[in-house]
Write a structure and sequence with these properties.
The chain is mainly beta and 123 residues long. Helices cover 0% and strands 49% of the residues. The protein is built from no helices and eleven strands. Strands 2, 4, 5, 6, 9, 10 and 11 form a seven-stranded mixed sheet that branches. A four-stranded antiparallel sheet has the order 1-3-8-7, with no helix packed on it. The protein is globular, with a radius of gyration of 13 Å.
């Protein structure tokens, strides 16, 4: 199993920035993928961004150009830099991981391991 621990959430005013981190308990295989999802109250969990170990990334249209996903393979850590935050970005943010081949996934069903989440509130 892989344990994922998120950090970096908080409250920020619209237009501000936050950086989320997700530490994985062990090395993800060469075809490992880690991603960020979010879920607001009363809404379904949605993919935000994901990154393969080989560097390929994908983003949801709603965050393209504002959020940047990055990773430190040596530290087994994933980051999400969130700029120009909007109230609509308010949600619980979850880190997820899986092993997969092919395209970078951004749907929850593709991910096997999940963190506990970190709250992001934009006012």
């Amino acid at each position: 199993d892989v344990q994922l621990v998120e950090s970096g959430g908080g409250s920020v005013q619209a237009g501000g920035s936050l950086r989320l981190s997700c530490a994985a308990s062990r090395y993800m295989y060469d075809n490992g993928c880690m991603g960020w999802f979010r879920q607001a109250p009363g809404k379904e969990r949605e993919g935000v961004a994901a990154a393969m170990r080989d560097g390929r990334t994908t983003y949801a249209d709603s965050v393209q150009g504002r959020f940047t996903i990055s990773k430190d393979n040596a530290k087994n850590t994933l980051y999400l830099q969130m700029n120009s935050l909007e109230p609509g970005d308010t949600a619980m943010y979850y880190c997820a991981a899986t092993v997969i081949w092919g395209r970078v996934p951004l749907h929850a069903a593709a991910f096997r391991y999940w963190g506990q989440g970190t709250q992001v509130t934009v006012s």
